[in-house]
Amino acid sequence: MEKVKSFHVSRKVIWGSSIALAVLASIPKLFDPFSTPGDIIINSSITLLFSIFIWYYNIYSLPKFSSQRTNKSLFNWKLLLSVIIGIVIMVVLVIAHQELFEISKMDAPIMFELRGVLINFIVYLFLHLLFQNYQTQQMGMELERTHAVNLGAQYELLKQQVNPHFLFNSLNTLKSMVDIQDPQSADFILKLSDFYRFTLESRKLDIVPLREELQILDSYVYLLKARFEEGFVLENNIDLKQYDSAIPPFTLQLLIENCIKHNVVSLDKPLLIKLYTEADFLVVENQIQLKRGVLSTGVGLDNINQRFMHLVHKEIEIDKNETTFKVKIPMIYDNRNN
Predict the structure, then answer these.
(1) Long-range pairs for 240-243 at CB < 8 Å and ≥24 separation?
(2) Global model pTM greater than 0.70
(3) Cα–Cα dist 326/318, whole Å
(4) 27, 81, 197, 274: which could form a disulfide with 285 (CB 3.0–4.6 Å)?
(5) C-alpha span between 257 and 162 (Å, rounded)
(6) 161 vs 300: CA distance, rounded Å
(7) What are the alphabetically sorted keywords of the record (predicted)?
(8) What angle do CA 98, 104, 108 make, to 5 degrees?
(9) Is 282 helix (H, G, I), strand (E, B) or coil?
(10) Predicted local distance difference test score (pLDDT) of residue 264
(11) For every one of its 338 residues, what pLDDT tens digit does the chain have, with 9 covering 90 and above?
């Protein structure tokens, strides 16, 4: 699990802003004809030390109460406590500089106190803004993590929906062959075994090379041929250069199965399915000869579409006219099998 990044303020921000406040506080002294370089240095020193203290005090206290009071008012008792402590610290700094540099005359203490309160508000507001931005980023990251977990869970469900569908149809085919005592039943069982061995090996994979998908497709076509004989025809015209691309496992089987589900497949009216590439798409095309009474729910195509959206953020394309039905799936040029 990814470790949550803790709230942090850069030292450059702390020291840079403190030096800037010290310089700003000393500007009036530069235009005072009675000020000496020593006065300017002492004035800047007090402001600098006070600013640094206020930064670190608020950094220590802000996360402790802001994380628990995000819906409360920006101004609360913690800010009041910070102002009170700041006043005390400013008094201590002024007295310490008087004693250290043996200064008998300095600006009125009230001026330093007002300056301290102003610095306190500036630092508090800026730090509060930084912390709120940090919380917003953390919430965004958490939402992204949650979204990724949900997508992963949905995708796993999509993959799990494929296998039972294949198994149901394959067992129905085997039953039909056994009923008529087809001599190819043994070969069918072997091909079925090979097919489901591949199913077990690839069930945890998001994508497989197109070459492997086509190899297992050969076994699947054999299973279909055993049932439909010459009533089922598959033409593979995929460009050999595309064999090294990738595809979600069982995509082609699911598309072919979808064709068989909705169209008449018989010796009198063979179903022709073509596989070929077109630009950056792999196309599965079949002639339309719809079965009567079969309603399309779109679940199979929606399953495939969601898998591609999850993997490459691209949708499949459907091109339909009076005679042909085409499904175009994006080519994936990625060898990740994770």
Answers:
(1) 242/210, 242/277, 242/282, 242/331, 243/209, 243/210, 243/211, 243/214
(2) no
(3) 6
(4) 274
(5) 11
(6) 9
(7) Kinase, Membrane, Transferase, Transmembrane, Transmembrane helix
(8) 80
(9) strand
(10) 93
(11) 445 567 777 788 888 888 888 888 777 777 667 766 776 777 788 888 888 888 888 777 765 545 444 444 555 666 677 777 777 888 787 777 766 766 655 565 677 777 778 888 888 788 778 888 887 888 888 777 766 666 665 555 555 555 565 667 677 777 877 788 777 778 888 877 877 777 677 666 778 899 988 988 888 888 788 778 899 999 999 988 899 899 988 889 889 988 988 899 999 999 999 999 998 899 999 999 998 876 666 777 887 888 888 788 889 999 999 899 999 999 998 654 44
DSSP string across 172-186: HHHHHHHHTT-TTHH
Name the burial class of residue 34, with classes exposed (0-12), middle (13-18) and buried (19+) by CB atoms within 10 angstroms of its CB: exposed
Write out the two tokens for 299.
Answer: 């679940």
Please give the Cα distance from 316 to 330 (Å, whole number).
Answer: 6
Q: Give exposure, 200-220, as e/b (b: 16+ Cβ within 10 Å).
A: eebeeebbbbbebbbebbebb
Question: CB–CB of 174/187 below 8 Å?
Answer: no
Domains of the chain, by residue range, sit at: 11-146, 182-330
Rounded (10°) angle between helices 210-228 and 109-179: 30
Tokens of 43: 């004035």
Q: What is the C-alpha separation between 320 and 316, in angstroms, rounded? A: 13
d(CA 21, CA 11): 15
Check: CB of residue 306 under 8 Å from CB of residue 313. Answer: no
CATH of 182-330, picked from 3.50.50.60, 3.40.50.300, 1.10.3370.10, 3.30.565.10, is 3.30.565.10
